[in-house]
Amino acid sequence: MSELLTVQDVTMHFGGVHALTDVSFEVQDGEFLCLIGPNGAGKTTMLKAIVGAIRPQKARIQLDGREISGLPTHRRIHLGLALTHQIVRPFRSMTLKDNVALAVGHRRIRRVWTALGGLDRNKERAEALKLLEMVDIHTYADQAVAGQPLGVLKRLEVARALALQPRLLLLDEPLAGLNHVEAAHLADTIVRINREGLTIVMIEHNLGEVLRVGHRLVVLDNGRKIAEGLPRDVMQMSNVRAAYVGKEANDAAA
Ligand SMILES: Nc1ncnc2c1ncn2[C@@H]1O[C@H](COP(=O)(O)OP(=O)(O)OP(=O)(O)O)[C@@H](O)[C@H]1O
């Protein structure tokens, strides 16, 4: 396996808040890496730094060997990054299919040669339907987003990110707010997408699912990397257990 993403010495301070301090890690091509840590550890800040939504004071970030830390977000997306957000914000009056078709259209506009071929709404909708199938919500394709349960919205968010045809998909708490059964189903869907070849970095608080699906873990606490390695090994580390207030880490590793 080769390295798809290399993150080196990322430091992001918001005034006196040290959100990230000298954090480095790598993501291998094809890997399913989980980024974990207690609330406020710096996980979302890290994903934002990777896509360029924020500018760290210090960072070297390479995608497939190419330095991207100076590039604007749209260039990073063009090179193969996609990020789903913790809070889902689709266009609520539009159908699920049109929401995804819009994302397909955005991608096509950015790629000059396909854009020159003209935008074809039917093609975009057909591609959108396939993407909705990939995340198992195609039966709702022609329904409006408004009124859909969170489980459907979370899957829609993944489909919209897939529409960008990323090489690396960054997921910010895709399972949050779902019950155990819904969370396990969505985690299975993400595993399937990973097995089809997409490299994934997922922030997740659901440690049971993290242990079940993650190939490797990176643990942040107070803006610093405190551990990384195979899920079972990492969850046994005393500093990782100590970082979690409450008993969720112990439960998951038992
Ligand atoms: N724009 C900002 N301005 C000021 N402080 C910020 C900003 N964004 C994040 N922070 C702070 O940086 C720290 C890390 O936040 P971050 O959201 O990255 O943590 P997290 O690990 O994703 O937490 P959670 O699991 O609760 O989502 C927190 O103390 C947070 O309050």
Automatic annotation (TrEMBL):
InterPro entries cross-referenced by the UniProt entry: AAA+_ATPase, ABC_AA/LPS_Transport, ABC_transporter-like_ATP-bd, P-loop_NTPase
SUPFAM superfamilies: P-loop containing nucleoside triphosphate hydrolases (SSF52540)
UniProt key word Membrane: no
Domain of life: Bacteria
Membrane-spanning segments: none
Residue stretches making up the ABC transporter domain: 5-247
One GO cellular component term: plasma membrane
Transport as UniProt keyword: yes
Gene3D superfamilies reported for this sequence: P-loop containing nucleotide triphosphate hydrolases (3.40.50.300)
Swiss-Prot/TrEMBL keywords: ATP-binding, Nucleotide-binding, Transport
Molecular function, one GO term: ATP hydrolysis activity
PANTHER family given in the database record: CONSERVED COMPONENT OF ABC TRANSPORTER FOR NATURAL AMINO ACIDS-RELATED
Name of the molecule in the record: ABC transporter ATP-binding protein
